[in-house]
């Protein structure tokens, strides 16, 4: 199953918090404030903030009013960029890597469709910015599938057998 790691999840949450605070106050935010506000353990967050600084997403400011702030506009930071900075490359299947050891590569019938799914996931993640996350409300989280979606959700829903009155 394709899943975000906790580190990538925490990084996206923290960057969204920085974007919100900068929109409200324009100033720096301490790691402690982010930790307390987002429920991210401070030792884990501190390491992530260092990595986000090295990756060019955050700037650290020293002094009594120091802390962290976004290094660029939140509309120019995509979820894909953050995930790659924290977790490295996103790989749906081993056959998309250069050093594949798959024994079925010459007879594989799903490599091309899986590659299209993989590319669609990457496009979707690249199309969602921290700014988008900032303005999405919990009640209005509608994922927009790419126009060339491989999955027909409506067809899949309609092909399910009807439920019996007993719920079985």
Please state the overall shape, judged from the principal axes of the Cα atoms.
Answer: elongated
Q: Termini, distance in Å?
A: 27 Å
Q: Helix-strand pattern, N to C?
A: HHHEEHHHH
* Count of domain modules: 1
Assigned CATH class: Mainly Alpha
- Unreliable stretches (pLDDT < 50, length at least 5) are 138-160
Give me the CATH fold name.
Arc Repressor Mutant, subunit A
CATH superfamily: Winged helix-like DNA-binding domain superfamily/Winged helix DNA-binding domain
Mean pLDDT across every amino acid position: 82
Biggest beta-sheet profile: 2 strands, antiparallel
Class based on secondary structure composition and strand pairing: mainly alpha
Strand adjacency order, main sheet: 1-2
CATH architecture: Orthogonal Bundle
Strand fraction equals: under 5%
- Please tally the β strands and state the result: 2
Task: Explain this structure.
The protein has 168 residues and is mainly alpha-helical. It has a single domain, classed as Winged helix-like DNA-binding domain superfamily/Winged helix DNA-binding domain (Arc Repressor Mutant, subunit A). The chain has seven helices and two strands, in the order αααββαααα. The chain has a two-stranded antiparallel ribbon with strand order 1-2. Helix 1 (6-24) packs across helix 4 and helix 2 crosses helix 3. The longest helix has 19 residues, at 6-24.
